[in-house]
Write a structure and sequence with these properties.
With 267 residues, the chain is an alpha/beta fold. The protein has two domains: 143 residues, D-Maltodextrin-Binding Protein, domain 2 (3-Layer(aba) Sandwich); 110 residues, Periplasmic binding protein-like II (D-Maltodextrin-Binding Protein, domain 2), CATH 3.40.190. It contains nine helices and eleven strands. Helix 1 links the parallel strand 1 and strand 2.
């Protein structure tokens, strides 16, 4: 079997550890695999479409762009359990008088990077669907780490900082950042609260082109699914990558993102 070349974005130094470990696991499972790292998802998508890599570990934004660019013919190979039914939170200052979504009118709303699905694209889309007139809201954007599609979480930390120091009365962050910052003791519950949770949506996906051989796609999935939480070597990698179990792909969880991009011309 030819070596599968996988692309991933280097949003954090731990990415090297993760993919070296997964490469070794694949090789041990009899599936030759290697990886190359990209500085941003736009470059990675172009490399996949050009055939320079066989598989790309993509954000939701990169995934739907691959689907659009290939006319829906691309192969979706798998996702994390944590990628299913992802949510974002609307966080507000308790002293800001924001008790409902309608109270956002006239207030400052902090949002993350313009390429972050969870901290900007979908929260704004869902708020508009709930009747919030965004023209009556002052949006305070933090375009941090563009090209990483929100992977670093830095823009979401900027949102929380703006809430803490009063530059914004409300802000949107992904559920993982909100839970993580609470667990780390960096959220003062007497000052900040989560007022609203978005509908669910799906996150990252392994993408390949239609030309990727079915035998290799099947082998890729078998090796991926063989990573088990009860195996210490696998568990270390699963923990680093933020999941307990790899799941088969599904497409329905991206419909809201496609609709948001269509409405905003964000393709």
């Amino acid at each position: 079997m030819n070596t599968i070349v996988l692309g991933a974005v280097a949003y954090d130094p731990k990415v090297v550890t993760i993919w070296e470990g997964i490469r070794d696991h694949f090789r041990g499972a009899g599936v030759p695999m290697d990886f190359c790292l990209f500085s941003n998802y736009e470059r990675q998508v172009e490399a996949l479409l050009a055939g320079h890599v066989h598989v790309a570990w993509n954000t939701p934004l990169a995934h739907v762009r691959v689907r659009r660019r290939t006319g829906g013919t691309s192969r979706s190979l798998g996702m994390r359990d944590s990628d299913r039914d992802f949510h974002s939170k609307l966080v507000v200052r308790r002293d800001a008088g924001v008790r409902s979504l309608a109270d956002l009118h006239g207030k400052t709303l902090a949002v993350g990077s313009r390429d972050s699905t969870q901290a900007r694209i979908l929260p704004l889309h869902f708020l508009a669907q709930e009747g919030v007139d965004l023209a009556r809201v002052k949006v305070l954007p933090f375009d941090t780490d563009l090209g990483k599609h929100g992977d670093t979480g830095t823009s979401e930390l900027d949102v929380l900082a703006a809430l803490r120091d009063g530059r914004a009365q409300a802000g949107v962050v992904g559920d993982l950042v909100w839970v993580g910052e609470q667990a780390a003791g960096r959220v003062d519950p007497s000052r900040l609260e989560a007022l609203w949770t978005t509908p669910g949506f799906d996150h990252c996906m392994f993408d390949a082109l239609a030309s990727f051989p079915s035998a290799q796609a099947d082998a890729f999935w078998r090796a991926l699914a063989a990573m088990r939480w009860d195996d210490p070597k696998s568990r270390r990698l699963l923990e680093l990558e933020g999941l307990r179990q790899w799941m088969p792909p599904r497409e329905e969880g991206y419909a809201s993102l496609v609709a948001a991009l269509d409405a905003a011309g964000g393709w």
